[in-house]
Amino acid sequence: MLIDNTTTKPLVGVSRCLLGDAVRYDGKSKACTIVLEKLSDIFTLTPICPEVEAGLSVPRPPVQLTGSIENPRLTGRDDPSIDVTTIMQQYCDTKPAELKQLSGFIFKSRSPSCGLNSTPVFINDRCVDESSTGIFARSLCTAYPDLPVIEDSDLENQALLNPFIRLILKVNRSL
């Protein structure tokens, strides 16, 4: 009889730019060493870029959260006539249901789609909040309120990173 000693690594979503993919608005990436060198050994990483997957180009005009803290719009930073709110909302209406197999998610901080409590919101060209959540991050966290999540800016803080890892591994072992 063969014994299978292999274990399946938990599946964790990650903002695609953190993996070194040049998908950001400026055509660049934000490769994260901790994700690439540490977390990729522990987890199977699933790259997700909501803006690209929603159909926006690379490069593209930068966007920001505007108009309301509770229900912001996604409009152009340099050209306020650009409004991609509907495109992003349509994506967010369907994508979370496709991610039910995830054991966790690593978001890109300050992103208008992926920021987790670090995204600025502007009203009348003035920053009124610097701790909002991006449109996709909000949608995913609403769909899966118990999903362990963290953003890249918190990965260097062991007091935040270690519990994130432990929670995912604990949940995955109980499945």
Measured by DSSP, the beta-strand proportion falls in 15-25%
Task: Give me the secondary-structure category.
Answer: alpha/beta
Supply the number of structural domains: 1
Helix fraction bin: 25-40%
State the strand order across the main sheet: 2-1-5-8
Q: How many beta-strand elements?
A: 8
What does this protein structure show overall?
By secondary structure, the protein is an alpha/beta fold. The protein has one domain. The chain is 30% helix and 21% strand. The chain has 5 helices and 8 strands. It has a 4-stranded parallel β-sheet with strand order 2-1-5-8, with helices on one face. A 4-stranded mixed β-sheet has the order 4-3-6-7, with no helix packed on it. Strand 6 and strand 7 form a beta hairpin. Helix 3 runs parallel beside helix 4. The longest helix is centred in the last third of the chain and has 16 residues. The N terminus is likely disordered.
Please describe the topology of this protein:
Layout: E1 11-15, H1 33-42, E2 44-48, H2 50-53, E3 63-66, E4 73-76, H3 85-98, E5 104-107, E6 119-123, E7 126-132, H4 135-143, E8 149-151, H5 158-173
Parallel strand pairs: 1-2, 1-5, 3-6, 5-8
Antiparallel strand pairs: 3-4, 6-7
